[in-house]
Specification:
Layout (H helix, E strand, L loop, with lengths): L7 H7 L40 H13 L4 E5 L2 H9 L7 E5 L4 H10 L6 E5 L4 H4 L7 E7 L11 H10 L3 E5 L4 H4 L9 E5 L13 E5 L2 H14 L5 H11 L2 H20 L4 E5 L9 H7 L6 E6 L4 H10 L4 E2 L9 E3 L11 H7 L6 E4 L5 H11 L2
Parallel strand pairs: 2-3, 2-4, 4-5, 5-6, 10-11
Antiparallel strand pairs: 1-7, 6-7, 8-9, 9-12, 11-12
Helix pairs in contact: 2-9, 3-4
């Protein structure tokens, strides 16, 4: 089906998924096979070996590409596998400008893995696009943007920084995990590549681990296809099937995440037991105007600090939760809570976390799709 002129909710239901030509099955079957029969050497039906291509994975790749308004999409075994693949577009001596507030696993693979291969990473604040321009040199070949950022919910102007990257001969890559294609489309804003931890909102049910990359650039797509096949960090067909199922309700889920997020952010902002609240939908957010310009909603990720800025206070609040589950990850239908300094961002040195503004006491919430009143009651009884 050609989904080019359809709206996002319709694209989420239909993109990449066609009735099975053999049986008429509405859902793409799980093609649990490692190889495919050939009529003659090199003569086949488009599939020869499952690492190279699999019909279930192919359907998911088409779906994610359509959601991101991209011509090309590629799926990987995890969000980190997708990130790993993108780093292989670079060579020793290349430099990457990276937002200084980002997922701890991304920081780890940059500094502990690819820095060992001669790729340089410069972590800078991107909250003000004007401040980024001075960091470009002839060695900068990529700009890594995460917006909203994890966990401080900073908003980065994708259009402005992508324009700078293009003017300086660098690729603009946007990690769109928190926003999803429902709330934000980086390629439409000028980015070259968009990357997702599909494990999170796109999958949406905390039951699979998967990553994806989308682009409109044919030369990059050819390199990604080569790397995907050559390095083999692919997802299995069962995981692809689960994500295809999850995508069908992506728009509905994101609407509920946004609604619940707004109510919880408002509650936290007016509670005397709470210090700072980080959510891009608040008028008080320093880049709220940019968020309104480039997003279609503000999502369900919220961070806050206790009024008494102590880590033991934060830990006690986390222990008090009954509905919010203390766990890694985010983006599922159920609400989760965590302490980034000891969990998702523990791999970032304390001094670097503090430099970016990440306090040890910061609590991160992944607001699910439960009834908001129940979540608010849980928050109220957990706060001390």
């Amino acid at each position: 089906m050609n989904t080019k002129n359809l709206r996002k909710g319709t694209v989420a239901v239909h993109a990449g998924v066609e009735p099975d030509p053999t049986t008429g099955a509405i859902m793409t079957p799980i093609y649990q096979t490692s190889t495919f029969a050939q009529e003659a050497p090199g003569v086949h039906k488009g599939y020869e070996y499952a690492r190279t291509q699999n019909p279930t994975r192919h359907a998911l790749e088409k779906s994610i590409a359509a959601l991101e308004n991209a011509q090309f999409g590629y799926c990987f075994a995890s969000g980190m596998a997708a990130t790993d693949t993108l780093m292989k577009l670079l060579k020793p001596g290349d430099e990457v400008l990276v937002t200084n507030d980002l997922y701890g696993g991304t920081y780890r693979i940059f500094t502990k893995v690819f820095a060992e291969y001669g790729i340089k990473f410069k972590f800078i604040s991107m909250a003000s696009a004007e401040d980024v321009q001075s960091h470009f040199t002839s060695s900068v070949k990529m700009v890594w943007i995460e917006t909203p950022t994890n966990p401080l919910m900073n908003i980065i102007d994708i259009a402005e920084i992508s324009k700078m990257a293009k003017a300086n001969g660098a690729l603009a890559v946007v990690d769109n995990t928190f926003a999803t294609p429902i709330l934000q489309n980086p390629l439409d804003l000028g980015a070259d590549i968009v990357v997702h931890s599909v494990t999170k909102y796109i999958g949406g049910h905390s039951d699979t681990v998967l990553g994806a990359v989308a682009t409109n650039k044919e030369d990059i797509a050819e390199k990604l296809a080569f790397l995907q096949n050559s390095c083999g960090a692919i997802p299995g067909p069962q995981d692809c099937f689960l994500v295809l199922r999850g995508i069908k309700t992506l728009q509905l889920r994101m609407q509920r995440h946004c609604e619940n997020g707004e109510k919880i952010a408002a509650f936290l902002s007016n509670d005397f037991r709470v210090g700072e609240v980080y959510w891009p939908g608040l008028d008080s957010h320093k880049n709220h105007a940019i968020a309104k310009k480039q997003m279609h909603g503000f999502g369900g990720m919220i961070s806050f600090t206790p009024k008494e800025d102590k880590i033991d206070k934060a830990i006690q609040i986390l222990k008090n939760f009954k509905l919010f589950t203390l766990a890694e990850s985010l983006g599922g239908v159920e609400s989760l809570c965590g302490l980034p300094s000891m969990m998702t961002h523990a791999s970032i040195p304390k001094e670097e976390r503090e430099k970016a503004g990440l306090k040890d006491s910061l609590i991160r919430l992944s607001v699910g799709i439960e009834d908001a009143e129940d979540l608010l009651e849980d928050l109220d009884q957990a706060l001390i």
